[in-house]
Specification:
Helix content: 25-40%
Largest sheet: 5 strands, antiparallel
Structural class: alpha+beta
Oligomer: single chain
Number of helices: 1
Order of helices and strands: HEEEEE
Number of strands: 5
Length: about 110
């Protein structure tokens, strides 16, 4: 029967789409309402993810708050160093975040 896998595929696709959209909507509304946290300081402990393997992520810390950035689908900042992100050790930044997801990123000139 071809119909059962097709129905399952469509339902799975719709479930993933709804989950991704609801996560995006939550971040966007908290950002627009100003109900997010922010941190400023130098990027330390930066480790670039290996994009040759699945699930790669860049990790770093700013003023004691740890972040991870992945290029996979989902809400939040997703530019990794391999795709041109300016993040690296020593860069002064201001980051707005919700539940460790980056909603705003400013590179500070100092």
């Amino acid at each position: 029967m071809v119909i059962a896998p097709l129905v399952f595929g469509v339902l799975w696709f719709l479930g993933i789409g709804f989950s991704t959209y609801s996560s995006y909507y939550k971040l966007k509304s908290r950002y627009l309402n100003g109900t997010f946290k922010s941190v400023e300081g130098k990027v330390v402990s930066f480790h670039a993810g290996n994009t040759d393997r699945g699930g790669a992520k860049d990790t770093f810390t700013v003023s004691g708050v740890s972040f991870s950035v992945t290029s996979s689908m989902g809400p939040g900042y997703r530019d990794m160093q391999a795709s041109g992100s300016p993040l690296q050790n020593g860069v002064e930044v201001k980051i707005g975040y919700v539940d460790s997801k980056i909603v705003s990123l400013e590179i500070c000139d100092k």
